[in-house]
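Holo model, iron/sulfur cluster. Inputs:
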Amino acid sequence: MSRETLEYIASRKKELNAIILAHYYQNPDIQDTADFVGDSLQLAEQAAQTDADVIVTCGVSFMAESAKILSPNKKVLLPDIEAGCPMADMVTAEALRKKKAEHPNAVVVCYVNTSAEVKAECDICCTSSNAEAVIKSIPEDKEILFVPDRNLGQYIQDQTGRKMTFWEGYCPIHDVLTINEVEEQKALHPNAKVVVHPECPPEVTRNADVVKSTSGILNYIKESEEKEFIVGTEEGFLYTVQKACPDKKIYLARAEFTCNEMKHITLEKLARTLETMEHEIEVPENIRQKAVKSLDRMLAIAP
Ligand code: 13P
Ligand code: SF4
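Output:
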């Protein structure tokens, strides 16, 4: 990457009063260029609080949409409009409306990995950081419909004992991790703690030492007395942890752990988006007004 590109990003950012937000799954050069790197919850919080006029989201489209929903008067840019989330695409507003008709009394909880239209159909949103707190905030006698991640839903059900109806969605990156792959790593690194994301399948989460969101994994590794960790989440996160904890040994739970959607964002595309102001994310106001309620309810109880 040329120095000119980095200098251009820095000066154009100042000129626009822009903030660059990046998810932990972004490539190292994007993480190093961003003003803030975090998980889905932290990115939503930053978008809601920032004084910047322009928010550039280095992540996937639902993250940029969440920023727009929470900060409607700001310009929100996504450097590559093709960066989407296959799990978010597994539920549409129309399909959800049909499901809701079958469960008319259910509280509908949606994972943040959903489109604005789907959020508009839900009662409350959650991320992997606060899903347990969100579910615990729902009165015991209420039925819960959880969309779209069946693995996160199952994990929260295991933790809280709350029976839920799950949507059959999943993250294609985390869902393929098997217990055998984890065991292979464990055989190579017998002293390592196994720390996985709740998007992993139940056989993996039930046998892990720790299950946490990306920021939760980061904090756990930072604070732990242990020195070695087998991490079950996307490989971009390795850079984040290794930078924060250079003295610890971190191993990926499987060799291939890449979300190609996240990798759509490059420094060249980031520079271009700041130059051309494309691709601007818009959410129709009628959808936004409904979707913001589910995000605001979540942010009010997020730990
Ligand atoms: P968190 O950022 O909430 O840990 O979720 C991971 C993820 O898959 C984002 O797409
Ligand atoms: Fe979606 Fe999974 Fe990629 Fe996250 S890692 S953006 S959940 S496909």
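DSSP finds 14 helices and twelve strands in the chain. The longest strand covers residues 18-23.
Archived with the compound record.
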